[in-house]
Design goal:
The complex is a heterodimer of chains A (256) and B (78). Chain A is mainly α and 256 residues long. Chain A has six helices and no strands. In chain B, helix 1 runs antiparallel to helix 4 and helix 2 packs antiparallel against helix 4. The chains are: A mainly alpha (256), B mainly alpha (78).
Chain lengths: 256, 78
């Protein structure tokens, strides 16, 4: 829909940046086409791998800059898993850390001009969220057996309320992957679209006199939004990881 | 003609669904405001509770996201 709905005032459509295109030109996408989404996911994985390969190469007692970044990231997530999900959740630390790095790097790299943000697509984040949901459900039943269903039966509530609470708990359990994935995709998409809306207003000075006021304002707005987006890119990766930890805690210790 | 009216209704509905974001904004502001209120009274306990604050924000925000989801469904699925 984006292609033919260019409005008169805007130089380009703000949603054009999210179109998945094959790298070789044309617009036919099949299952194995190498698209810009695939390219940027590969760059994301490469960048994350590079940080840790270079960061752990020296293993100096006084760390270099890249080593301390790697150590900080590792320690940050390690502490988060241990604090929130408990010591026995540390076997899931590699998984949680991988999730965090993939989301963080794809959010931050997506802020480069002309870049594509894989996490702005629900298709990508839904896979991540479904993987977390399935892991948590399977682990919950594997560790606790049928006692895992006690998660839905709030034993501290009065008996009359328990069936109603159970219904609410079941609904909120199955809504988790939806909110988990759309939170990330929505935040990424909305921020990038706002930046592009302001960017589309900037060339107005070439067309009309109103531009004298609008153009500087939109340049300031882009700068401010960009600063906010850097913050949001980090916070959303953090929130996705912390919620994964909370769900893991529910699976390993289902008592309320 | 009928399709036009349906599409108009979908667009109006999508716009109305955006008012739900206001609710999410109130919720997130409430969480952070109360966190700050508590943190300023007892700064030494604040550092340990920031993770809880972010979880609270995420849950408050989730309901705003559902309004966004409704808007998306109206725009592209109806």
């Amino acid at each position: 829909m984006a292609a033919e709905e260019h409005s008169e005032g805007l130089a380009f459509h703000p949603m054009d940046q999210f179109i998945v295109r094959p790298l070789g030109g044309g617009d036919e996408l099949s299952f194995f086409t190498v698209s810009n989404a695939a390219l940027w996911m590969a760059i994301t994985v490469l960048a994350a791998t590079l940080l840790f390969v270079l960061g752990t190469r020296g293993r100096a007692i006084v760390p270099t800059r890249i080593q301390s970044v790697a150590e900080l990231a590792y320690g940050f997530i390690h502490k988060m898993v241990e604090d929130i999900a408990g010591k026995d959740a540390l076997k899931f630390f590699p998984y949680v850390f991988t999730l965090f790095l993939f989301i963080l790097f794809s959010n931050v790299l997506g802020l480069l001009p002309m870049a594509f943000t894989p996490t702005s697509h629900i298709a990508v984040t839904a896979v991540l969220a479904m993987a977390v949901f399935l892991t948590v459900t399977i682990v919950g039943f594997y560790v606790n057996g049928l006692k895992f269903l006690g998660l839905f039966w709030v034993s501290s509530a009065p008996l009359v309320l328990r069936p109603i609470l159970a219904l609410i708990e079941v609904i909120s359990y199955f809504v988790r992957p939806v909110s988990h994935s759309i939170r990330l995709a929505g935040n990424m998409m909305a921020g990038h679209a706002v930046i592009k809306v302001f960017a589309a207003f900037t060339p107005l000075i070439l067309i009309s006199a109103v531009g004298v006021a609008v153009t500087p304002l939109s340049i300031i707005a882009i700068t401010a939004m960009y600063g906010l987006e850097v913050l949001v890119a980090f916070i959303q990766a953090y929130v996705f990881t912390i919620l994964t930890c909370v769900y893991l805690k529910d699976a390993l210790h289902p008592g309320h | 003609m009928e399709g036009d009216i349906v599409q108009m209704g979908a667009y109006i509905g999508a716009g109305l669904a955006c008012t739900g974001m206001g609710g999410a904004a109130v919720g997130v502001g409430h969480v952070v405001g109360n966190f700050l209120l508590g943190a300023l009274r007892n700064p030494s306990a604040a550092a340990g509770q920031t993770a809880t604050m972010f979880i609270g924000i995420a849950f408050a925000e989730a309901l705003g996201i559902f309004s966004f989801l409704v808007a998306l469904l109206l725009m592209f699925a109806v």
